Amino acid sequence: MWSNTKGRELKERALRVIPNGMYGHESTRLLPEEFPQFFSQAEGAKIWDADGNSYVDFVCAYGPNLFGHGYAPIEEAARRQQMLGDTMTGPSEIMVDLAEAFVSQVAHADWAMFCKNGTDATTMAMTVARAHRNRKIILYAKGTYHGAAPWCTPRPAGIIPEDRAAIVYYEYNDPESLADAFKQYDGQVAGVFATPIRHEVFIDNFEPDLKYVQTARRLCDENDALLIVDDVRAGFRLARGCSWEPLGVLPDLACFGKAIANGYPISALLGSDKARAAAQEIFVTGSFWFSATPMAAAIETLHQIRTTDYLEKTKEAGAALRAGLDQQAAAHGFQLRQTGPAEMPQILFAEDPDFRIGYAWSVECLKRGVYLHPYHNQFMSLAHDERIIAETLAATDLAFEALKGTVGSAEPNPNLMKLLAH
Ligand code: PMP
User: Fold this and answer.
1) Which of 199, 248, 251, 360 is the most exposed place for a label (fewest CB within 10 A)?
2) Could you state, in order of their start, the residue ranges of all structural domains in the chain?
């Protein structure tokens, strides 16, 4: 029987000693109050909260767990390295192996730099782009997420206009708005940021038009600016290289993070020879950027990416989940809006502008052992096999049934309404 006694106590204790009890994208403040904030364990496709409830985890730590929690070959590689040495006075020799592995795996990459989080990689990409021709303007698709540094964080508190003075916003998937920005800042554009797909919270997700992708490449070439694909969230989830490779467009710089070490803390900036001189000029570093254990985990993750059918399997799992949910929703008189690629599916309800139906359903799922996010895209892992999808669909069917009884009294979430009003 689901309960959250300990989870509620932990949230109260946390409120006293952690701002808001938790901060950033993993805070549950905007989620229904039943959502657990703290977890005690993870294995395969499952996570356990502090009360001991287990859930099929469709958030996968917001992306990192590509092969499932605790995937043995990667854990063993990490443990072997941990015994040898982790944070030393310089990197382990395996840093070179890892850079070589990335260069052979990702088409545009001639070099790699490693850091910890996605924001490190995107900020470093911005710095390299500006150093490339000593220009300052960065073209940024309005509403896309590139991390939590002052130049890109989505909340205004603590940010001054000067932090964004050289950031110019264009419309994602709109080649004309990109061309206009280049025209307006003729000769001043250092680089263009693009997420590989539109995968923002609260909205239907979608893949970009080829024309936009090709125009971004052409305009960067014509204007000697660098094209930056932010693959932090989607990297290795849509393709075994950069996510725009299947479209036939290679960036100059790509940011990877999240999934590249199946949960171990490491991110990467991968660049082409064109950007090498600029990368050699800038000064960037961090105390933990060169720790060897995450690098060993990343080497094994890349090996698994090359040698297993994880990509096909996660696509299949996502498609099975999507089809099952659509059929159940219809049978219970609901309509879903399922968008984005099946392996990173965004699952919203049709005609649910204040998200109250989705929130109510996510609580019913949660209480039946399925952790589905009500406004962020989900992530599949190799551990989401047929058995897990069947277990999930058995629970979601009951959740739709229960929703029929509660949807009439569902209210919008006040914290969410406050945020969306801004
Ligand atoms: N870029 C994208 C596209 C992301 O999805 C994220 C994380 N959600 C980031 C950058 C920032 O990554 P991190 O939280 O590891 O700094």
Assistant:
1) 248
2) 5-62+310-421, 72-307
Fold agreement (5-62+310-421, 72-307): no
Can you tell me which atom of ligand 1 is nearest the CA of 116?
15
CATH architecture designation of domain 5-62+310-421: Alpha-Beta Complex (3.90)
C-alpha 49 – ligand 1 centre gap (Å): 24
Rounded to two decimals, the pTM is 0.98
Kindly state if the Cβ of 145 falls inside 6 Å of ligand 1.
yes
Name the band, by pLDDT with cuts 50, 70 and 90, for residue 422: confident
Share of the chain above pLDDT 70, in %: 100
CA atoms of 142 and 392, how far apart (whole Å): 35
Ligand 1 centroid to residue 118 C-alpha, Å: 5
Whether ligand 1 lies within 6 angstroms of the CB of 119 is answered as yes
Q: Flag whether pLDDT at 420 surpasses 90.
A: no
- pLDDT for 177-216, tens place per residue? 999 999 999 999 999 999 999 999 999 999 999 999 999 9
CATH topology of domain 72-307: Aspartate Aminotransferase; domain 2 (3.40.640)
Helix 175-184 with 210-222: angle, nearest 10 deg? 20
Mutate to test the pocket of ligand 1, among 59, 228, 233 (most ligand atoms within 8 A of CB): 233
